[in-house]
Amino acid sequence: MTATAQSSHKVGPLRHFLRRHGAGYAFAGPYLAGLVLLLAGPLVLSLAMSFCDWDGMGGLDRIHSVGVRHYAELWREFTTGVNSNGEPSFARLAVVNTLIYAAASVPLGLLAALGLALLLNRRLPGMGLFRTIFYLPAVVSGVATVLMWQWMFHPELGLVNSFLRGLGVNTAGHPVLRWLYSPEGCKPALIIMSLWTVGGAMLIFLAALQNVSDSLYEAARVDGAGRWRQFWHVTLPQISPAVFFNLVIGLIQAMQVFMQPFLVYSPQQDNRLLMAVPQIYYEAFQLGHFGYASALAWLLLGLILLLTLGLLWSSRKWVYYES
Amino acid sequence: MFRSYLQPPVSSLQPGIKMKDPNTTRRWTAGSILALLLLLALAAVFLMPFLWSLSASLKGLGQVYEFPPKLTVSDPQWSNYSRAMARLPFARFMLNTVILCVSCAAGQLLTASMAGYAFARLRFKGRDLLFVILLASMMLPAQVLLLPHFLLYRQLDWVGTYKPLIVPSWLGGSAFFIFLFRQFFRAIPAELEQAARLDGASEWQIYWRIFLPLSKPVLVTVGLLSFVAHWQEFLGPLIYLSDYRRYPISMGLRMYQSMDGSFVNLLMAASLMASVPLLLLFLLGQRYFTRTLLLTGGK
């Protein structure tokens, strides 16, 4: 203490400040630089760009302000379903498709992850191996595995339909069973693909399940609760923070889906796999509508924020936190 | 790529925590046998995409398009793998990917651990506010930053180079990794640090000589997660790279997909070869990282 006081007496206030805080800023330096240059700055820039026009070519001097035109255009597209050229609105279609995909894949993914975690949460041989197998797809999933799934879903030569034919299903008779090559089947196929990568959520559930105290189950048994009532009144409330966490993360991820629909595109899908982020990419990098694409990105951000806040608000009613 | 970074809040990351067994006795009830059978069936389903593409990768062209398709291969064509490698510069794509992954992982390991150290062990003005911002930024959807980042890198004349793909990793890189390091460093006893400080060690020496050597599990975890995430990165290379000789394997596979539309066996061979390094890394490192992630808890 006295040493600091003495040195502050000798050196100036700036030197004193740096001596106390300098190391912290130095160690956090790269991150702080990134925070300003790659997060805060770009956020402001992106918002500004949504009020401007820029074709992605030429210098920044070709950027010019257009006010709220892009937002007005988006508002019109979303309310009337028609864009300024009188065509059906791709932006609205993309956002609607993304919402449908999220509404189906997130709850199903949660159920699948929880189901796997419950199966793994018992003292049997081979649990470590099963855990590895179920988590593996989440780790290696990428372009390669999307291409593998595309082959799995091939209407004639894929394993999925071979299996169904083995069960006696006439796969030629249902448009849904043309999977990625039909408007009806492409969304279910994409959702099934997403279920394959629930390993991360499964691990979180598993950790939460293993944290539930045995004494709670014993108390429930003493009160005469059966297995189902134990699950409903002990397990679920105890793991509700994990449910909430997986729900929020799953939602944010599903709303940003890009690579999968981008890679499995086929004209037969009739744009039913047109998702929001691919549409932003397309507007900006293919059509050179950077301003419009920025406005669409902010619209999507607002939507994700709204949904997340809604979940957060509702969580007070169903997420149980030990105080 | 955002996906793998976003992992749950870390509640307790002290090394050496024992997992609790859900049941104290092992019992072979009808229920557990049923569960085991169900697990076996599910494991088969989860592995099936790999097996199905392995089977396709070993078939001749005639066999691949044979109807009805079979999982078994009577006459495996191992030469499909060398043919797939010859059709496009596969080795080049893989080398590019390794260069990108190593550059990014090195940057993230260094700068994220430094920031984690600052948040865990150092005092500086605004630290707590910055930490809240760090946590909030984990929730920010990355796509809002896509266009302004492009604008920035274009202005710097970095489009077409690896810089837009690597430099962010040297600027902290990922909020989640910083968070992981912070949680781990906080659990290291203060006595070690104080002893070193009395011996006149500098802040850098304490970080480099004491904290990092004690942090092997979290270093391995972050290193692996970062490597895997960059191996799979697709949107970044799609936007910033145009010369196919600089493509990483994710973009390379897309070339196989569009060029080899009718050579499914070669496409599957290339996809499998692109996944094998990740498979090996995962199996080697999973001792560390499933454990570290399991310990991150759901609370």
Give a topology summary:
The complex is a heterodimer of chains A (323) and B (299).
Chain A: H1 2-10, H2 13-49, E1 52-53, E2 64-65, H3 69-80, H4 90-120, H5 127-140, H6 143-152, H7 159-166, H8 186-195, H9 199-211, H10 214-222, H11 227-255, H12 259-263, H13 276-286, H14 290-318
Antiparallel strand pairs in A: 1-2
Helix pairs in contact in A: 4-8, 4-9, 4-11, 4-13, 5-9, 9-11, 10-11, 11-14, 13-14
Chain B: H1 2-5, H2 30-57, H3 61-64, H4 79-87, H5 90-121, H6 127-137, H7 143-155, H8 163-166, H9 175-186, H10 190-198, H11 203-211, H12 216-232, H13 235-240, H14 249-259, H15 264-295
Task: Walk me through this protein's architecture.
The complex is a heterodimer of chains A (323) and B (299). By secondary structure, chain A is an all-alpha fold. Chain A has helices at residues 2-10, 13-49, 69-80, 90-120, 127-140, 143-152, 159-166, 186-195, 199-211, 214-222, 227-255, 259-263, 276-286, 290-318; strands at 52-53, 64-65. A two-stranded antiparallel ribbon of chain A has the order 1-2. Chain B is mainly α and 299 residues long. Chain B has 2 domains: 27-77, no CATH class; 85-295, MetI-like (MetI-like fold, Orthogonal Bundle), CATH 1.10.3720.10. Mean pLDDT of chain B is 85; it is low at 1-24. At the A-B interface, helix 2, helix 4, helix 5, helix 6 and helix 7 of A face helix 1, helix 2, helix 5, helix 6 and helix 7 of B.
